[in-house]
Specification:
binds NADP nicotinamide-adenine-dinucleotide phosphate; single chain
Length: 354
């Protein structure tokens, strides 16, 4: 879909101190938040393509995750902070493309959780202001901003969680700054990886498939690795994607269907799996914005067009990760975890199913 300026429109190895001069003939792509789940997936796919030189941006070039990324072909780890425009100037100098990602996660506070809308907007504005300078100078040819999927029905989209509206406001800022022509917006839905997070009670186990929404809500999800798959495809096909926005999802299932799929993968003779909705009150207490997100998904829902995506994927010869494939590859706990016990405690305050 054409990238509209209306927010309501739904439709690879070196240390950071090394020279950032272009190396060889490969176009350089800078990846912000290069160590994040999303950023590192993008770095891995770009590295595998062999076409690009990659600058993976991190605040901590000596971290374990930075070290792992630095071992990939054509990847250079560079120090940068989305809150520090000067560092971004250095990171973006001479680049052909930028994969721009921002984070709302600031630090956990009782009653609020960790997500702060203004914190993400500040990063987004810095990112776009500096990207614009390089687009104007003619070096930057393609900017991807990773946002979040928009709803099917705009009328149902309010109120939206702060970490969604921050990204849509940043999309708007891209248009207002006149960066649209060289931009592509990718809008991923919820990651499969959320089903297996470290958050209390959000972990697939032998008997539980956890989720934040009602068991009957159709919920679009994606493997975080597929954000890298799409970003790589977008950078390789600028003529198709410049000025466009694309909602991306890999699956569209209810919680009960996902639990049934997990049962099928484990075997029908194995212990019974049930879909377990995390009590909304518990979510609201721990991470308020995720509670708002769960309400939003139940009311509005992500609006990715899976048929259209499949057609584009076929055309580009890329294959998205099915949930069944992701589940087959994962290991899981055979004994109830501490988190599962917490979940059971939470059930005393709110019914699990509706
Ligand atoms: N979870 C989902 O289902 C989902 C779905 C769609 C979209 N999203 C969005 O995707 C984005 C990324 O999420 P994620 O889960 O991939 O991230 P993540 O794994 O939680 O990683 C966060 C990253 O942010 C980096 N970071 C934090 N503050 C920074 C700053 N000031 N400047 C530069 N880097 C900074 C950290 O890197 P260093 O410490 O190495 O600098 C870290 O790698 C978020 O905006 C999220 O809302 C999430």
């Amino acid at each position: 879909m054409k990238l509209s300026c209306q927010v309501a429109d739904v439709q690879s190895n070196s240390a950071s101190t090394e020279s950032l001069e272009p190396r060889g003939a490969k176009p350089i792509i800078a990846v912000t938040m290069g160590t994040s789940r999303q950023g590192s997936a993008v770095v891995r796919h770009l590295s595998k393509s062999g076409i690009f030189q990659i600058r993976a941006i991190t605040r901590s070039p000596l971290s374990k995750q930075s070290e792992l990324l630095s071992k990939l072909d054509n990847v250079q780890i560079v120090q940068g902070d989305l809150l520090d425009p000067e560092s971004l100037k250095r990171c973006f100098s001479g680049v052909h493309g930028i994969f721009g990602n921002t984070t709302p996660t600031k630090g956990w506070v009782v009653g609020r959780g960790s997500m702060v809308r203004d914190y993400e907007i500040k990063q987004g504005k810095n990112l776009i202001d500096i990207a614009k300078k390089f687009a104007d100078s003619g070096t930057l040819k393609h900017f991807i901003f990773s946002s979040v999927c928009k709803p099917k029905d705009p009328l149902k989209s309010e109120p939206a969680p702060g970490h969604f509206t921050s990204k849509w406001s940043i999309e708007e800022y891209i248009c207002n700054k006149g960066l649209k022509k060289v931009s592509t917006i990718l809008r991923p839905v919820s990651y499969f990886e959320n089903f297996d997070s470290d958050l209390p009670s959000v972990q697939i186990s032998e008997t539980i498939f956890p989720g934040v929404v009602n068991k009957n809500t159709v919920w679009q999800t994606i493997a975080v690795d597929d954000v890298g798959l799409w970003a790589n495809a977008v950078f390789q096909n600028p003529q198709k994607f410049l000025g466009e926005a694309l909602n991306i999802a890999g699956e569209e299932m209810t919680g009960e269907e996902m639990a049934a799929l997990w049962q099928k993968i484990k075997g029908q003779e194995s212990p019974k799996v049930r879909y377990a909705m995390i009590p909304r009150r518990l979510i609201n207490l721990l991470e308020h914005d995720i509670g708002l997100m769960a309400n939003w998904i139940e009311r509005a829902g992500y609006g990715a067009d899976l048929t259209q995506l499949k057609n584009i994927a076929d055309e580009l010869h890329i294959t998205m990760t099915p949930l069944a494939h992701w589940l087959t590859k994962k290991s899981y706990r055979r004994t109830p975890s501490k988190q599962a016990l917490m979940f059971n405690l939470g059930r005393r305050f709110e019914p699990v199913s509706s």
